[in-house]
């Protein structure tokens, strides 16, 4: 067996395992956030629980993350048509919207602080600690998503993707859509369960 055929077999094996490994990691993230939101629900029974409205910035960030997923879907469709220029443009838009999402999360944290709601310290409450902590954990996952997008953008720029070679792009898109859906879940969770 030649070295090239061994390398090709290894490459195919790696490609076959890439998506299942990504799904396993996303399932573990779902379990992590399910645990956090379950603890939130249990803690609501405490006497010192404080109810408050979500910051306006969280509404804006939710819209931004939805738009980022739409832009990524368009980018992927353009890539399937081998329209690399438009695909790259919408990928860049996805990236900018992702950064804007992170910025509005930061603005939302400041809105909570301005309202006297703190994560830690003598003025903090259990409810604000939960919402800020859970939201911050999501932002960390989204930063990982931004790094993934940067890798996809770099590979796209180097013309490593095409309609016949989309695995790396697809993996990045799956992860990005996952963190988007995760935020939508958290947003509605915090909106309806107070």
Please provide the ordered H/E string of secondary-structure elements.
Answer: HHHHH
Q: State the total count of DSSP E strands.
A: 0
* Class by SSE composition: mainly alpha
**Proportion of residues in β-strands:** under 5%
Average residue pLDDT: 87
Can you tell me the CATH architecture? Up-down Bundle
Q: CATH class, anyone?
A: Mainly Alpha
What's the domain count? 1
* Helix count, DSSP H or I runs of 4 or more residues: 5
Please write out the topology.
Layout lengths: L2 H41 L12 H25 L3 H31 L11 H32 L9 H26 L2
Keywords:
194 residues, mainly alpha, Four Helix Bundle (Hemerythrin (Met), subunit A), 80% helix, elongated
What does this structure look like?
The chain has one domain (3-192): Cytochrome c oxidase, subunit III, four-helix bundle (Four Helix Bundle (Hemerythrin (Met), subunit A)). It is 80% helix and 0% strand. It contains five helices and no strands. The chain has helices at residues 3-43, 56-80, 84-114, 126-157, 167-192. Helix 1 (3-43) runs parallel beside helix 5, helix 2 (56-80) runs antiparallel to helix 3 (84-114) and helix 4 (126-157) packs antiparallel against helix 5. The longest helix has 41 residues, at 3-43. It starts with a helix and ends with a helix.
């Amino acid at each position: 067996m030649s070295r090239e055929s061994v390398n090709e077999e290894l490459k195919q094996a790696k490609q076959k395992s890439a998506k299942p490994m990504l799904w396993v990691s996303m399932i573990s993230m779902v379990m992590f956030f399910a645990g956090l939101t379950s603890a939130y629900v249990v803690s609501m029974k405490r006497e010192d629980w404080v109810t408050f409205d979500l910051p306006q910035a969280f509404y804006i960030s939710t819209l931004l993350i939805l738009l980022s997923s739409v832009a990524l879907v368009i980018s992927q469709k353009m890539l399937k048509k081998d329209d690399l220029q438009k695909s790259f443009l919408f990928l860049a838009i996805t990236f900018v919207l992702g950064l804007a999402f992170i910025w509005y999360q930061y603005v939302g944290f400041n809105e909570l602080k301005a309202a006297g709601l703190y994560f830690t310290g003598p003025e903090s409450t259990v409810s604000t600690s939960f919402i800020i902590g859970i939201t911050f954990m999501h932002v960390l996952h989204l930063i990982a998503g931004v790094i993934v997008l940067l890798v996809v953008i770099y590979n796209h720029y180097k013309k490593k993707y095409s309609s016949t070679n989309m695995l790396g792009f697809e993996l990045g898109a799956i992860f990005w859509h996952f963190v988007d859906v995760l935020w939508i879940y958290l947003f509605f969770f915090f909106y309806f369960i107070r």
